[in-house]
């Protein structure tokens, strides 16, 4: 029984691995230059939620008894070299599902072993790499967003200045890349390198708000699909591709690898939808970072986009990025009067339930329950 079962604690299931996470990350970030060392390790001081490493570790454990398939040392075939790098489309950026005559649903279901040996050292390292990439993106994000707080403390840009915060972010990316290269798995390296490109692509899409630069944009179905693609690139790409990578490192077969990816993609979309909702509903004190920041930054996220569908007045405000006096207050008012927040929550719930469905064929075990619980907690979270 997983749904609503309070005895399920995802953190406890991978507690041993999580205990070493921050220490190992700090080791990866060591620099001979004392001030670079300080700035690089700054965001590891406050306790983050560690959602991404937690997911990687749970996925590693949950896939440890799914069917295995031989891999070619993680090497891509040479034909791949001619393919274009880093496409922008959600649909074409990962290997499509490989049809299989051997669906995992037909496999015998076994329990996860209780031993600690089912998570590989490479999978533990992958968990650290995902947190490094995430933290690097936060260092850059706080500069772009002029943010003054993060994880309940002054942001790195406020504490050390923009230049050092940007360079520290680059340093984290570099150390993540070195750790990734040392896994000696070309497919996993390609996945995580693509994530870094996707983060930048997502951030660029966000700076533009809508597909076309217009003074008075009109609401179309494309408004939502543009937002979802941006959200995939900005948030779900790291989660989905690292879940995929965890399964690959464990030598899982293709249906398992695809299931892990789909779980991460759906969970990542749910996670960001909730994030965009909390920006409207939760105080700065509880969030540990500025609240109501999106409108101030000129950003139209899901709650506003749903409100806009029924109130054309919002189009004008979106077009000028809420830049005139009173725009932010007015937009906020219109969103709160609308069903935008409810619709955002409903969509997040839909993605969370899709995440759970994605791994339904995994053998029943504690780690699978942990993944299910993570999807439920993603919807319920307040920070
Ligand atoms: C947080 O979003 C930011 C991200 C999820 C990704 C930001 C990506 C970049 C800045 C691209 C460049 C980065 C790298 C590492 C290549 P948010 O601002 O909506 O959330 P917040 O409220 O936590 O600040
Ligand atoms: Mg931000
Ligand atoms: Mg941002």
Automatic annotation (TrEMBL):
GO terms for molecular function: metal ion binding; prenyltransferase activity. Keywords: Isoprene biosynthesis, Magnesium, Metal-binding, Transferase. The keyword Magnesium applies. GO terms for biological process: alcohol biosynthetic process; isoprenoid biosynthetic process; mycotoxin biosynthetic process; ubiquinone biosynthetic process. It comes from the Eukaryota. Its cofactor is Mg(2+). GO terms for cellular component: transferase complex. Belongs to the FPP/GGPP synthase family. This is Probable prenyl transferase. It comes from Phialocephala subalpina. The chain holds residues 73 to 455 of 455 of the full protein.
């Amino acid at each position: 029984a997983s749904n609503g079962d309070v005895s399920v604690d995802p953190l406890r299931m991978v507690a041993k691995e999580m205990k070493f996470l921050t220490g190992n990350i700090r080791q990866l970030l060591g620099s001979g230059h004392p001030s670079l060392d300080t700035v690089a390790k700054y965001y590891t001081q406050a306790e983050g939620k560690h959602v991404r490493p937690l997911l990687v570790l749970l996925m590693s454990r949950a896939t440890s008894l799914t069917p295995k398939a031989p891999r070619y040392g993680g090497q891509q075939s040479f034909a791949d070299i001619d393919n274009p790098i880093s496409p922008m489309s959600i649909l074409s950026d990962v290997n499509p599902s490989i049809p299989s005559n051997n669906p995992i649903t037909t496999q015998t279901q076994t329990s996860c072993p209780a031993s600690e040996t089912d998570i590989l050292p490479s999978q533990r390292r992958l968990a650290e790499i995902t947190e490094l990439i995430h933290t690097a993106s936060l260092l850059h994000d706080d500069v772009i967003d002029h943010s003054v707080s993060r994880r309940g403390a002054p942001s790195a840009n406020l504490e050390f200045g923009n230049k050092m915060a940007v360079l520290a972010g680059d340093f984290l990316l570099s150390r993540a890349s070195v750790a990734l290269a040392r896994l000696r798995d070309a497919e996993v390296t390609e996945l995580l390198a693509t994530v870094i490109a996707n983060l930048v692509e997502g951030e660029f899409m966000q700076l533009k708000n809508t597909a076309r630069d217009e003074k008075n944009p009109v609401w179309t179905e494309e408004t939502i699909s543009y937002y979802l693609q941006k959200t995939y690139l900005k948030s779900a790409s790291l989660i989905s591709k690292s879940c995929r990578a965890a399964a690959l490192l464990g030598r899982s077969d293709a249906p398992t690898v695809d299931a892990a990816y789909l779980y991460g993609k759906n969970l990542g979309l749910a996670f960001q939808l909730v994030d965009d909702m909390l920006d409207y509903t939760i105080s700065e004190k509880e969030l540990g970072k500025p609240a109501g920041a999106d409108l101030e930054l000129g950003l139209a996220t899901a709650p506003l986009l749903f409100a806009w569908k029924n109130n054309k007045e919002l189009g004008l405000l979106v077009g000028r990025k809420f830049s005139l006096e009173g725009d932010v207050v007015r937009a906020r008012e219109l969103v709160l009067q609308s069903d935008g927040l409810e619709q955002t929550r409903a969509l997040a719930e839909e993605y969370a339930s899709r995440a759970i469905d994605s791994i339904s064929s995994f053998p029943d075990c504690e780690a699978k329950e942990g993944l299910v619980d993570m999807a439920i907690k993603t919807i319920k979270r307040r920070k």
